[in-house]
Amino acid sequence: MSLPPPLPTSLPAGGEDHRLHPWSWLFVLLMQLRHYFLPLVALLVFGQRGDRDPMWAQLIPLSAIAALVLVSVLQYLSYRYRIGSDAITVRSGLLARNRREIPFARIHNVEVRQNPLHRLFGVAELRLESAGGVRPEAEMRVLKLDQALALERLVRQRGQAPQAADTVAAPSLTGADAEQVLLRLSSWDVVRMGLLSNRGWALAIAAFGVLFQTVPRPVMDAAIQRGGQEAFGYASHLHPGVAGAFLLLAAALLLGWLALRALSVVLTLLRYHGFTLSEQDRRLTVSAGLLSRTRSSVARRRIQAWTLRESTLHRWFGLRQLRIDSAAGGPSRDEDRALRELAPLATQERCTQLVQHLLPQLQWPPARWQSIPQRGWWRLCLGALVLVPLLAAAAYWRWGSWGLVVLAWLPVALLVAHRQMARMGWYLDDHYVAVRGGWWKRWWRWAELDKVQGLRLQRSPLDKLLGTSSLQLDTAGAHGDVALTLHYLPRAQAQHVMEQLAAALARRKLRW
Question: Is a pLDDT exceeding 70 seen at residue 52?
Answer without folding.
Answer: no
